[in-house]
Amino acid sequence: MAELIHESAIVDAGAKIGSNTKIWHFTHVMPKAIIGSDCVLGQNVFVGDRVVIGDRVKIQNNVSLYDGIACEDDVFIGPSAVFTNVANPRSFIERKDEFKTTILKKGSTIGANATIVCGCEIGEYAFIGAGCVVIDNVPSYAMIVGNPGRQIGWISLEGYKLNFDSEGRASCSSSGEVYEQLSDMEIKRIVD
């Protein structure tokens, strides 16, 4: 099972937890949830049924992941980030059969207090700024801020802003990796 499950956490029977995963204070994991290896779930996290979390995912305090959310490997979710699962909720109408899938692709980052509206796909290594409200799909490596979220640039795999030259190339200031801009909506990392 997990390396550490705090005594105040509740992990329902049937939940699948990978090795070396840490589950902290007052967290609740539902019975059909799947959590990968080497993850950290902070204080007061909720993981619903039909939620799939990959390996090396870090979920900070006060985050609820409801049915229909999938996190690939290496995702970071900042404190108090919010995820919805129904587009038009009403307390007097049950819409559990209308949950929309939200996918957080490999290496993406969701900033503190960001809101991700259901049905969105956050691209690989995309960076969602603190307090941002995401209402549409986000391209890989995109930097998104504001309400509603808008793209203000591109970010490297290591999390540094990319500045493209006139030939559509940029390099990460930390790693030196080179990126090529394919269109206004797509870049790619060039691997030697």
Characterize the structure shown.
The protein is mainly beta and 192 residues long. The protein is 0% helix and 35% strand. It has strands spanning 4-5, 10-11, 16-17, 22-23, 28-29, 34-35, 40-41, 46-47, 52-53, 58-59, 64-65, 69-71, 76-77, 82-83, 102-104, 109-110, 115-116, 121-122, 127-128, 133-134, 142-145, 150-155, 161-162, 169-171, 178-183, 186-190. The strands form five sheets. It has a ten-stranded mixed β-sheet with strand order 1-4-7-10-13-16-19-21-22-23, with no helix packed on it. Strands 3-6-9-12-15-18 form a six-stranded parallel β-sheet, with no helix packed on it. Strand 22 and strand 23 form a beta hairpin. The chain is globular. The relative contact order is 0.09.
Estimated structural class: mainly beta
**What is the arithmetic mean of pLDDT?**
95
Which series of helices and strands comes N to C?
A: EEEEEEEEEEEEEEEEEEEEEEEEEE
- Rounded to the nearest angstrom, the distance between the terminal CA atoms is 39 Å
Instruction: State the low-pLDDT regions, or none.
Output: none
Helix fraction? under 10%
Q: What is the CA-based Rg, rounded?
A: 17 Å
Share of β-strand residues? 35-45%
**Count of DSSP E strands?**
26
Morphology: globular
Major beta-sheet overview: 10 strands, mixed
Total helical elements: 0
Order of strands across the main sheet: 1-4-7-10-13-16-19-21-22-23
